[in-house]
Specification:
alpha/beta; TIM Barrel; Immunoglobulin-like; 3 domains; five-stranded parallel sheet; globular
């Protein structure tokens, strides 16, 4: 498509990408431009790197002084939109269950509030509901209010590039080079106990209330764009508390491959635009065989090198260890799957959360099942008094710290050991 769009003579694909109309105008404020790339009289706009020319989904508010900025209703943008649907239909008919859409909010240009972009995805969602009602759509948007509330996605990721709250959970101390990052302070899941859960909750609850009943917020352990992986500077006990949180929160949890065994981020030179993210994209570590069991190809033919450290985590090494991170994660997944209250649509209520204090306590409820969850990522014990009217008894200790709840007068005292958590069924 792009090679055809580059040609000087008009053709079917001329308007499938965004080009300005003057090869000597190298600056288009607010956009990235590649200079002198083709015979065509103009320069292509890119989304990010030079190798990523921007498909033409149109401009929500075209600049009348720049006729190359086409409205969303122009023939070029309309054909691109139809072709996206055609491609999706091809894969859905092949048996795909749905799509995870990279940078879903980036399509239409000059689109304040992403109104036209959301309208495009709503058009896609309406088509899916009619022809492929079982197909799931997950957006990498990090704005659930727009992605789910307006765009019609089933799920939206909270991610580092647009969510300070997400970053504050596990990576705040590493965030100084990221947009919106904070060069100081601690993540909530840090042994120091100096994190602040309200940095996450204030943002999360805003979106949670906006999209209630419409879709799910997805909280991932990480992804290919995030450096470092969550295992950096954490042991398995630290990680278990993180996974207890992820597997007991509303919405849809996502585990980035390798995080379930504690894979580390390697210090690697950039590969094809990976830059500091490259070290979080290394091959999955299955065993102690060549290339960590990932591939039988010669080492030099791997896209990225495998972690060669002798103590690298592998699936094989953890498979039969009941205390391994892998098996702790499996138990927490099983906990979630066996209790409707802990699943995606169960009601969520904060029981105790204060800035700079611990523990973080919340309640999940579905039908006649209620589960109380409490988290203490700190390296010291914590306790808090809970209202005795909230529940009258502990039905079952489902996971984590034992005997953490003690009746005291009209209330309950919740005590958690260092780096621990609990999930109790209550009534």
């Amino acid at each position: 498509w792009f090679k055809e769009s580059c040609k000087a003579e008009r053709n079917e694909y001329t308007d499938w990408y965004i080009w300005n109309d003057d090869p000597w105008r190298w600056d288009e404020p607010g956009f990235h431009v590649v200079h002198g790339y083709a015979d065509r009289h103009g320069n292509p706009l890119t989304n990010f790197f030079y190798s990523q020319p921007a498909l033409n989904f149109g401009f929500a508010h075209p600049d009348p002084r720049k006729p190359w900025q086409q409205p969303v209703t122009a023939p070029g943008p309309q054909r691109v939109r139809q072709e996206v649907k055609n491609i999706m239909r091809f894969w859905l008919e092949m048996g795909a269950d749905g799509f995870r859409v990279d940078m879903a909010g980036s399509l239409v240009k000059n689109d304040p509030g992403q109104v036209e972009t959301a309208r495009f995805w709503r058009w896609i969602r309406e088509w899916l509901d009619e022809e492929f009602p079982e197909a799931a759509m997950v957006s990498e948007w990090s704005n659930p209010e727009v992605a789910i509330g307006l765009g019609g996605y089933h799920m939206d990721f909270l991610l580092h590039f647009a969510s300070r709250g997400y970053t504050s959970l596990m990576r705040k101390q590493y965030a100084k080079h990221r947009p919106g990052g904070d060069p100081y302070g601690f993540a909530f899941f840090d042994k120091s106990g100096h994190g602040n859960i309200m940095e996450f909750l204030d943002e999360y609850l805003y979106h949670y209330n906006k999209i209630a009943g419409k879709g799910h917020i997805a909280i991932p352990t990480g992804n290919h764009d995030i450096n470092p992986r969550i295992a950096i500077n954490r042991d398995w006990d630290d990680m278990e508390v993180i996974y207890l949180f992820l597997m007991t929160m509303p919405g849809t949890p996502y585990i980035y491959y390798g995080d379930e065994i504690g894979m580390q981020t390697l210090n690697l030179p950039s590969k094809e635009g990976g830059y500091e993210r490259t070290g979080s994209r290394t091959p999955m570590q299955w065993s102690d065989k060549a290339n960590a069991g990932f591939s039988t190809a010669p080492r030099e033919r791997l896209y990225l090198p495998v972690d060669e450290r002798p103590d690298r985590p592998t699936v094989a090494a953890q498979e039969n260890d009941p205390n391994s991170l892998l098996n702790r994660v499996r138990r927490l997944i099983a906990l979630r799957q066996s209790h409707p209250a802990l699943q995606a649509s169960g009601a969520f209520e904060v029981v105790y959360a204060e800035a700079g204090k611990l523990p973080f306590v919340y309640q999940r409820q579905q039908g006649d099942e209620t589960v109380l969850v409490a988290l203490n990522p700190a390296a010291y014990p914590v306790e808090v008094k809970l209202d005795g009217k909230r529940f009258s008894k502990v039905v079952k200790e489902l996971y984590g710290a034992k005997n953490a709840l003690t009746r005291e007068g009209e209330g309950w005292i919740l005590r958690l050991p260092p780096v621990s958590g609990m999930a109790y069924q209550v009534a």
